[in-house]
Amino acid sequence: MAVVRDLLARKGTDVVSIQPTASVLEAARLMNDRGVGGVVVVDEDHALLGIFTERDILRRVVAAGLPPETTKVADVFTRDIVTCTPDMNVEEIGSIMTTRRVRHLPVVDVVGLHGVVTIGDLLAHRLSDQETTIQHLNSYVFDMR
After folding, report:
1. pTM higher than the cut 0.85
2. β-sheet with 48-53: strand ranges across
3. Number of structural domains, the chain?
4. What CATH number is attached to the domain comprising 83?
5. 61-108: per-residue pLDDT in tens?
6. How many CA atoms lie within 13 A of 126 on its CB side?
7. How many CA atoms lie within 13 A of 33 on its CB side?
8. Are the C-beta atoms of residues 48 and 42 closer than 8 Å to each other?
């Protein structure tokens, strides 16, 4: 059974991060430039503090009428985050994402931050598994003829 480490091996371990002193506008531009829906918030030592996502922008900045140019990420990012470890089962993290209604899971262990797994990564993995199963079934059916 696949584990989170397998997902990171496929997608890479690049982590898009920002410090809490950055403005929301800087964070939004970084997310747009990198094509991601969220960034991890880290301190100067790269320790994980939380996550800042598109959802945070909508709910805590836009809906609250805060100016993105002057609002600091520190004032609006999500601190109480859900994480996973590199050895967690892919099915387990799927359940966590569904139950907790999150789309980004920072991957951490005692060494530190290893990457971020998204719902898109999980869906790509499941699709790949299904394609492999279909290929095996096709081979079995057509080899039986």
Report:
1. no
2. 17-18, 38-42, 48-53
3. 1
4. 3.10.580.10
5. 999 999 999 999 999 999 999 999 999 999 999 999 999 999 999 999
6. 11
7. 9
8. yes
